[in-house]
Amino acid sequence: MILFKEGAIAKGRRFIPLFSRRLIALFLFGLIHVWFIWYGDILLHYAVLGFFLLLFHKCKPRTLLIWSILLLSLLPIVILMSGNAGMPASSDLSRMGQEAMKHDTAIYGSGSFIAIQNQRFIDWNSTLINQILFYPRILGMFLLGSYFAKRKILHNISGHLRLVKNICKCTGLFGFGLIMLGVFTQYSSNPVIAGWHDFLFVLGMLVGSPLLALFYITFFALLFQKENWKRRLLPFSFVGKMAFTNYIAQSVICTLIFYSYGLGLYGKVGTFAGLWLALGIYILQLIVSRLWLQKYQMGLLEWIWRILTYLRVSPLKYPNKHNR
To answer: To 10 degrees, the CA torsion angle through 231, 232, 234, 235?
Structure first.
């Protein structure tokens, strides 16, 4: 949002109408994704939260940081205050998960297209409340990104080198620490320690995960400052430049692999094979993205999104491929 706003103002355009159209278009993409491809869509929710984000676009960096911390702390504080109460035990979650997996395997793995469509809508409805509960957390991450953008921290790593290194160290230490606490309590033979597993597991996911996200971002940002690593990491930027297209493409590819109207492998691929399949899909997208961007300025869906935002057709190909 911050980058989009700066670009719009620099070109003398009205930011809020443009950004609102961009969000409405994203919402429509999300609906199509949910209804016809995969129920686990996030685009629709990002679009909704984008309108809440608009309330903060004039805020100073310090204000953005304070709001971000407050929103990210909201759900963990509620859990801390309630203790273990209200959280299903691991055994209950495991049992419910196994029952859901059996049902989903039957529908997605061998059901008709209509049955899959109906189940997709049911699954989306059943996860809607859970998604909304995480709205404060997602908005908090959005505001943290806005803080970084307004401070130009990732624009100018060398000018903020000490800050970025400190963020990397602290978030890595505490992020991994919180995640490992959940793992340690899971395998502890001490009943008192094991009794804290559910609580620490949820806390690790809610607090540890955002911290690890910051760790990964700052770690690779620092790594990218080294010339030899910059050359090695640069190919990954092609996937990122087509993030929207690749996100939807992953859903299309995977539903064709797992759903019955494709190869029907739902529930038949183990963890090890699934890991290699995921890596294979990513490598394929890396290669295709690089080849695509040699000829075109942006991904196909990014281009359509741009048309819906600006209400005019911009060229997809490079004006002059030798001067791209």
So the answer is: 130
